[in-house]
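Section 5.1 Outputs to date
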Amino acid sequence: MSINRLQSTLDYQFKQEELLKQALTHRSFCRGANNERLEFLGDSVLSLVISHNIYEQQPNASEGDLSRIRASLVNEAALARVARDINLGDYVLLGGGELKSGGFRRESILSDTMEAILGAIYLDSNFTQVQNSILYLYRVYLQNLPSQSNLKDPKTRLQEYLQSEKIDIPEYAVVKIIGKSHDQTFTLTCRILSLNIETSGIGSSRKKAEQDAAIKALKVLKK
């Protein structure tokens, strides 16, 4: 697919198109000029721009609240959402194995590529331009920031709820792991022994599976 369409979607025209091509190149496609270094740069630029924006938007928020808001906007899932908004998966250059396994849909690849593109824009222009690009791409999400009550992750919310009720904290245990190291699926349980509650969670990492199980436990508790 033509990268001219992508540049139009980004609302930015590269002076050095080779930077954009490198940003789109996954290491499975090319071990040399791939997007890993650009990803490193884009991660730092994104964090600064989002931090500055929410600092201005939320004058009464504590440091902890600001950190949680930022994390909700720059984590892997959030970056992947932004990438899907611009159909970035259609442009990523992947090796044969990643193509067959659907790498263009994988959150980790989409988020890394999104960061690499921001790093490429920064190198191709300047900080003001990449700031404008980030604010453009994030415009909907920055206008609809999550509420403070929804910022804490499910595991934390579950633990705080149980502690407030003087109930022992839950135990998490891995049931099975399937798939190769780069594309695994975890299944685990969350057990609240004193209440005889057990829920099961599934995710692409142990952390995500724990969060999934914690969400289900919270739903059981609040029925």
